[in-house]
Specification:
This protein is α/β, with parallel strands linked by helices. The protein folds into 3 domains: 182 residues, Thiamin diphosphate (ThDP)-binding fold, Pyr/PP domains (Rossmann fold, 3-Layer(aba) Sandwich), CATH 3.40.50.970; 148 residues, Rossmann fold (3-Layer(aba) Sandwich), CATH 3.40.50.1220; 193 residues, 3-Layer(aba) Sandwich (Rossmann fold), CATH 3.40.50. Helices cover 41% and strands 14% of the residues. It has a 6-stranded parallel sheet with strand order 2-1-3-4-6-5, sandwiched between helices. It has a 5-stranded parallel sheet with strand order 8-7-9-10-11, sandwiched between helices. Helix 12 links the parallel strand 10 and strand 11. The longest helix is centred in the middle third of the chain and has 24 residues. The relative contact order is 0.09.
Length: 579
């Protein structure tokens, strides 16, 4: 059990004191937040309890940082935000964590009970506001509710009875300052650090094993539920010979060198697989909602997970196995799951196509250092970063619209964290700060678009103050480029309307905030700039990139907002299927 010092235990047993003790018992090591009078009792007690308090410049960054910690560790992470506008500032972070199913606990406060309903300073129904984007949201109105609500919030965040995701609690400030009469700090027990294990039904396991044995072209797609034991995925892939596709919420679980990993032929693998095995993953827009128009050859879906979202949402499976995904995989691997008549020629063809496409990408990126406008090609930026960093242990983060699209194709290893399914621009800087604090011994590099960087640029100051050492590589194409190209193509009467960001010197901003910074305009300057930044971190490189090169997402029709699917090709296939 984590240690609480004698000095801490001797302090008055207030509700805030109990909150801090509970967090320590839950294995929390740090909290992220921005100060405010209403939450100062929590901060004070958290500091005395030995928790690190990472103070940010905007509340949304605090929740983004907590999400990064939750996603990188798989454990509960905590943010604190103050009342009223502090909480409303944090809502985007809550919504992003909700979409990502990240186990985050957000704590806040409300005015004293004697002023509620009178028009108090910063008064707002905060729990009601955030309830749609949380798994649990309550106000602790009495000290007797404290421990039950804390336990319930943590259980909900960890996904005990449904999908994991953010939970929220707030406290009238007089409750925080008051005594917790039903609380003994040395005897807090039963605090969850993970959801209770869920073993699969043997009949469902046998049905799943039978479906995999009958498959000829199996493909495994992983999600958040696969995170606790990555080796279980690798063992299952080795036992079945299945091809493997990760998703943003499961990136990094399987080594990119694994023989079955085929990200460059993603569409072909999805459309040609006869058996699709999803592991703790929703069939959301990124997977075409499981539609037969996208998975055209699939005769069987085997869905493994703990909740409805992972098991049956959007497409009912032929086989459903409810349980902890990694327990299910381990149990399946112990059975005879090798396909009886695998299409080895298909597997070899797709693996060969994947290798060739990745190699061709490198050749083309090196051969095209500049775009038509004479500025650095985004692919060339990424290729130089891949070659210079060359560190499989590096934590890479991607944030933006345009540059994220290029990064998802070319960045090696793939970005461990990005904007996710919610598409929340601005996560790059706070994600990188948190990642560096969690893993101070690893290199952390964030590739960020200039538009996305503007959302949380002031968190560079947070990086400097808290001792984080990430490197921020800004792709500065001076525009919201996907939107700019869409305006040029589809809104000819006013093709530049509100889409350009000219003349911004992000290196000067970083320098003014105390970071090492450099502006790069030529490709030959980039490698030495990256090498120096890695030794001088925290650091920022402002790379002048081309806005004249359409990104893969733009070319695929992302800006079109098709009616049925996110991509133009999928949308056309769905329309054809509905005829």
């Amino acid at each position: 059990m984590p240690h609480l010092s004698e000095a801490f235990l001797a302090r008055p047993r207030t509700v805030a004191h109990a909150v801090a003790a509970f967090l320590v018992r839950a294995g929390v090591r740090r909290i992220y937040g921005l100060t405010g009078s209403h939450i100062k009792p929590i901060w004070e007690e958290a500091t005395h309890a030995g928790l690190q308090v990472v103070d940010v410049r905007h509340e949304v960054a605090a929740v983004h940082m907590a999400q990064a910690e939750a996603d990188l560790t798989g454990q509960l992470a905590v943010a604190t935000v103050t009342t009223g506008p502090g909480l409303t500032n944090a809502v985007t972070g809550l919504a992003a964590a909700f979409s990502a199913r990240s186990p985050v606990l957000v704590l806040s406060a409300v005015p004293p009970r004697g002023q509620l309903g009178l028009g108090a300073l910063e008064e707002l129904d905060q729990a009601g506001l955030v309830r749609p984007v949380t798994r649990f949201a309550r106000t602790v109105g009495h000290d007797r509710q404290l421990l039950p609500f804390l336990h319930a919030a943590v259980a909900a965040a960890l996904g005990e009875d449904g999908p994991s995701g953010p939970a929220y609690l707030d406290f009238p400030v007089d409750v925080l300052r008051g005594l917790a009469r039903w609380y003994n700090p040395g005897a807090i027990g039963g605090v969850r650090t993970a959801a209770n294990p869920m073993d699969p039904d043997d009949g469902a396991l046998q049905a799943a094993a039978s479906a995999v044995r009958r498959s000829r072209r199996p493909v495994v797609i992983s999600g958040r539920g696969a995170a606790p034991r990555p080796q279980a995925i690798v063992d299952f892939l080795d036992a079945t010979g299945a091809l493997y596709l990760d998703t943003p919420e499961s990136r990094g679980l399987v080594p990119t060198t694994h023989a079955g990993y085929v990200p460059a032929v993603r569409s072909a693998a999805m459309s040609q697989a006869d058996t699709v095995i999803t592991i703790g993953r929703r069939l959301d827009f990124a997977l075409g909602y499981g539609s037969p128009a996208v998975f055209g050859s699939a005769r069987a879906f085997v869905r493994i997970g703990r909740s409805f979202e992972e098991l049956a949402e959007n497409r009912a499976p032929e086989v459903q196995v409810k349980g902890d995904p990694c327990r299910v995989l381990s149990a399946l691997t112990e059975l005879d799951v090798a396909p009886r008549d695998p299409d080895t020629a298909w597997r070899e063809r797709l693996c060969g196509d994947d290798r060739r496409r990745r190699q061709d990408w490198v050749v083309k990126a090196r051969a095209t250092p500049y775009g038509p406008d004479g500025r650095i090609h985004p692919n060339a930026l990424i290729e130089v970063l891949n070659r210079t960093l060359d560190d499989p242990q590096a934590l890479l983060i991607a944030d933006g619209g345009d540059i994220l699209s290029f990064a998802r194709v070319g960045l090696q290893p793939p970005a461990r964290l990005d904007t996710g399914t919610f598409g929340s621009l601005g996560v790059g800087v706070p994600f990188a700060v948190a990642a560096s604090l969690i893993h101070p011994d690893r290199r952390v590099v964030a590739v960020i678009g200039d538009g996305a960087f503007g959302f949380n640029a002031m968190e560079l100051d947070t990086a400097r103050r808290c001792g984080a050492r990430p490197v921020f590589v800004i792709s500065n194409n001076q525009a919201w480029n996907i939107e700019r190209l869409d305006h040029v193509e589809n809104y000819a009467a006013n093709p530049r309307f509100n889409t350009e960001l000219p003349g911004c010197r992000y290196d000067l901003i970083a320098s003014a905030l105390g970071l090492h910074a450099q502006r790069v305009t030529r490709i030959e300057e980039l490698e030495p700039a990256i090498r120096h930044a890695l030794t001088a971190a925290p650091a920022l490189i402002d790379v002048q990139t081309s806005g004249a090169v359409p990104s893969p997402d733009f070319s695929a029709g992302l800006a079109d907002l098709p009616d049925l699917h996110v991509l133009r090709g999928w949308d056309a296939a769905e329309r054809e299927a509905l005829r």
